[in-house]
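Our consortium's second objective concerns turning raw sequence data into structural hypotheses that experimental partners can test. To show how far this objective has progressed, the report includes one record in full. It was chosen at random from the queue rather than selected for favorable results. The single chain below, 349 residues long, was entered without modification.
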Amino acid sequence: MKGLSITAIGMRSIEDCLNIFHTLKQPLRLDFLELAIGSNCDVNFDYQDIPLVLHDSCLYNRNLRYKLNLLQPETWKPVKLVRAIKDVENVPGGIFSYSGDGYFAALLKAGLVTEIVDAFPDFASRYTSPSNQNPSYSVAVDMLLSGEIDFVFNARPLTPTEYAKAKLQNIQLQETPIAVDGIVFYTHPELTVSKITIKELMGIFQGRIKNWKQLGGEDLAITSVILSKENVEALGFEVNDNANINYAPNHTLAVREVIDTPGAIGYASASLVQNQSLLKFLTLGQSSVVNPSVINYVSPFLSDGEANSEAFSQGTYPLVRRLTLVNTNRPNSEAAGTAIRQSLALRDR
């Protein structure tokens, strides 16, 4: 077999690489195209059934890199998804609004459910901020029930009160788990503390631990940068008024504030911050169930910088949460929810 190897080094688009292959295929009798290191091969691109050789470090979904393992074919699914997503049936057209904590706007931008939008241009989604209120899970559910939005991304179970509100309006709520999220705590890059326990984080949010000196670090006041009180409470932490808390309107500004503030600590999904070289990520620890005096520490990232997905999915990482999609039985909401669930099910095959 004879192939053409192109090392793009970021200078050639995928379209240019495919055009070069098509031009030389017949005269050189080429059997395959190799896109070597330096190419940015987006899994959402239509490669037109060209026989490809793709290097591990070349596959991306938006700005998120996918890692393949030749011994684990299930890791190849992002490539197969390019074709499989077309099998989703009855995808509605139109602009569908969603909301949730501001944290989810960043997750969606990073590619949480972009495949269906890429495959079906008539399906568009947009984040809708609440009027005169800070974004939160509770506010988003109220917006869903009032018909302001079509679906909600949530990081906590629906409450009995929310189900009761829906019942009073003769509305059915459907809640579907869509992902497992690993929560990463990060600090100012020059902080000497490198690990922290769940118990110590509780102390910070409750205002009992106010200085990094109490955790073996420098004499520096602790500033917690969060998006909302409800967002923190969804992680199982109680936020007291005597804690030193700064509120950020969105994930991006929270990261910037931590970078600019000595002593600051923030948190986010692993997928949102794994490429942030200006942050310091804390190894997270929790007491052993068998022997409470033993603390098991787990890093949120592997040595190659990739998220510790195995620890997240198996529950060995101390802080994970299930993300859910919530929609109603209203026609638009139900249609959008069904399409998103089908696309995510294809991703998980």
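The partners drew two points from this record. The longest strand covers residues 173-187. Residues 3-86 form one domain. Both points have been shared with the crystallography group to help prioritize constructs.
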